[in-house]
Amino acid sequence: HVNFEDSNRPRTPKASAYFYSMFDLPVPSKLPNLPASEVPSTAKVVWQKFSSQTDFDRDTFFYGTFPKDFSWGVSSSAYQIEGGWDADGKGPSIWDNFTHIPGNIKNNDTGDIACDSYNKMEEDIYLLRALGVKNYCFSLSWSRIFPSGRNNSINSHGVDYYNRLIDGLVANNIMPIVTLYHWDLPQALQDIGGWENSTLIDLFDSFADFCFQTFGDRVKFWITLNEPQVIAWVGYGLGTFPPNINDPGSAPYRVAHILLKAHARVYHTYDDKYRASQGGVITLCPNIEWVEPKTPSDPRDIEAADRHLQFLVGWFTHPIFKNGDYPEVMKWQVGNRSELQNLPSSRLPVFTAEEREYIRGTADVFCFNTYTSKIHRAVAWGLRRLLNWIKEEYENPPIYIIENGVGIKTTSDVDDNTRIFYYKTYIDEALKAYSLDNVNLRGYNAWSLMDDFEWLNGYDPRFGLHQVDFDNPNRPRTPKRSAVYYAEIIRNNGIPMPKEDEFLYGEFPKNFWWTDKSKCCVTPQRLTGLSIWDQFSHTPLKISNGDNGDVACDSYHKIEEDVEMLKSLKVSSYRFSISWSRVLPDGTTRYVNEMGLNYYERLIDALLAANIIPQVTLYHWDLPQALQNVGGWENDTIVQRFKEYAELLFQRLGDKVKFWITVNEPYNVAYAAPYVVAHNLIKAHAEAWHLYNDTYRAKQGGLISITINSDWAEPRNPHNQEDISAARRYLEVQGHVVTALPAFEGFMLFSVFYCRLPEFTESEKQRIKGTYDYFGLNHYTTVLTYNLNYPAVTDRSWLNSGSFWLKVTPFGFRKLLRWIKEEYDNPPIYVTENGVSERGASDFNDTWRIHYYRSYINEALKAIVLDAVDLRGYTAWTLMDNFEWAVGFDEKFGFYHVNFTDPDLPRRPKASARYYTQIINCNGFPDAAAGLHPCLELESEGKRYSRNCAFLV
């Protein structure tokens, strides 16, 4: 306030000054006079920067927060939520009239009532308060304020409505962001030609002037036009939106020309008459979809992508943020085609020098709406690249994302995980752009506050954070899970790393076993019998690319080389499986293949000579075909056959082998015919365990147990009891009910789902009970479950791998280990497999695999140190790339690359091999803050060298 009666003109701040200061809006300044953009423009550096980005770098989730003054909000528009289409003197808009024509809108929906926000203002403000937003972007209905579109028809009821809305927002410390025009032109103005009539420049300015004068003491953030490309192209080019003019060749350019002039006029009105006293900012808001070149390394594709953005975005932003004129590529291309059409002038109108200067710089900030990328789906990483493009193209202006969200076609989506995953990944990409790329991002608004009228699609796609029941005349609002999630992001001002995910420095117990594992990559037939996998892999179309394991890694002839690899890794043990059919060609003890047994004896001797403990698996899926011919695991005689096979190995190898696994992943063995097969697998395991315990343990002193595989199961909605139950059920199906519970507790849990399980007799239960020395666990990933028997979806923020089923989810490893501890009274646990795959050409700098092992092994350390889990050992899968069952050699899990195109099958270490060696050498993760740990001084080719702690930190 200025006291004009005092000659000193003293100043006193009003309450609105304090309110405005909270938002730290950028101080408006004249934009620099930037040169016209060529194609490709200097912003091509964005594609160059990200073209070499690996999927791992692109998709890795980033934790962090935005600056304290970051503006979080939600958005809506008048026609989509207000209703009251003819209430209290409101005039009709082009959308009112358009929706009243049957067939124009899906299901003949209209916005006549919509969300009824005209009558539910207080409830909507309550929703905004509950979200904790700092701003709310909404639009003014031109025809609600000026029913005829002109200032000679001011509707006091409409003015009062917006005054009460703005006052309510300010009273709750929510900054109003007001859009003057969001597509709903007064029908009276369309009747004189709409945006094709240059008279609208004056009429729009008159409307804006009234709004500045009436609301500007409280509104400090103005948007002139929402998505002007849609107004020009969809309304006047395609003609699918009102006013339904189908003239794609010329009308959009004429309309855009008038829209730009109208925007500039309104900007100057605010700048000249109101800025000094009101101190706000004003801009326009285009919509932008990121465009990715088909081949980012091809300059022609980069040029095509940049040209697309210049036509889509630069059409309106280039004149304002650059030089007052259209992009050169638009002028050339439209002009050239106009000439080819023998037109007297270009279809793209020309600005005079005076108009160019008048338009240039008419924006204080850069606002835009974005939903997807031009890759035919929601692609979160496109947002980071788009923000970088704006930074480079327009010299890093203050940027506000005004609309971002996803529509789901459903009648109800309160439990909207898909929307949560969308916001999680898109906001994370915005965070990367701000934190990693120094993009001047000031705010983010979700679209939308609530389900609303979505134009031609009516009420079918739902974008809202709150569900609206459109069948109920009261239009009740219900917060969705995404509303709770978004409120949490606002409260945290971003996505800080959860405490439980913070990296833990420390060491594993001194006697911890570090292990590597492989399947025995051996198959020379000689006297060896066929296994079911030999038979299967030779059946056409069964294995990817027609691969088979006939030679595989040829470990049969490369014992010395493989043991040297293990020595270089510094592992304390090595897990491998024995081929039943190599030792017993027909699966029975009628004939023993001594050459096969000799191979394993030589391998074990070589391991022991290198101080590496052999961990031996009796059965890893390769049943002798001769036994399969008589029913395989469905024939209960196999229990005795397995016991005889086990006894032979205990007799011949037991003096040297002190760690036995009976069956690897029985769930996967039993999957095809689970109930009978699982029944026999459990009994076979129990018989082998008792045989060892009763006859060989006292002399040989080893351990024997079974190894199960289990993903961690996370409820899709952690607040939904049905999803929680589904997660529990999934864990049970994976192995804990079918295989582990009988061994650990001696009973079966039954439910309708398990009604087909054969029942154990009382004597069988007693025979099975307690047949374990440790809990063997293979673990790779986590799934999300809901009220079905199988997992449904995965969190899209989880990193992918070379296997469709394997998402990188380290947190699940610790949770599973803790669950086993609590479920089975903290048994000794040995992790017998854990690893990650890749596809395509091998990258020896396999940073994603390093990330996987670093994260998962650290979760194992947390389980020991923080949760007191009795974890005794860890086994990485796998020593080298090998035959991965039905996918053949396509998926590579190895620390060592094997060149399968070279007859010698040479092995070559990847970066992950060295990293795993570091972890073993350090027995964990030394804290880099304490300086270089002696364990990081490794020997390489006879020379000493010191490694920095980059990988370990």
What does this structure look like?
- The chain folds into 2 domains: 15-497, Glycosidases (TIM Barrel); 506-946, Glycosidases (TIM Barrel, Alpha-Beta Barrel).
- It is of the alpha/beta class and 953 residues long.
- The protein has 31 helices and 30 strands.
- It is elongated, with a radius of gyration of 34 Å.
- Mean pLDDT is 89; it is low at 520-527, 745-755 and 939-953.
- It has an 8-stranded parallel beta sheet. The protein has an 8-stranded parallel beta barrel with strand order 16-17-18-19-20-22-24-25, surrounded by 5 helices. Strands 1-14 form a two-stranded antiparallel ribbon.
- The two termini are 56 Å apart.
- Helix 11 packs antiparallel against helix 12 (251-278) and helix 26 (674-700) packs across helix 27.
What is the helix tally?
Answer: 31
- The name of the CATH superfamily of the largest domain reads Glycosidases
Number of domains: 2
The profile of the biggest β sheet is: 8 strands, parallel
Principal-axes shape call: elongated
* Share of residues in strands: 5-15%
> Which CATH class of the largest domain applies here?
Alpha Beta
Number of strands: 30
Radius of gyration: 34 Å
Structural class, from helix and strand content?
Answer: alpha/beta
Strand order of the largest sheet: 6-5-4-3-2-10-8-7
The CATH topology of the largest domain is what? Answer: TIM Barrel
Cα end-to-end separation: 56 Å
Write the CATH architecture name of the largest domain. Alpha-Beta Barrel
Whole-number mean pLDDT: 89
Helix % is 25-40%
Regions with little confidence, pLDDT below 50 for 5+ residues: 520-527, 745-755, 939-953
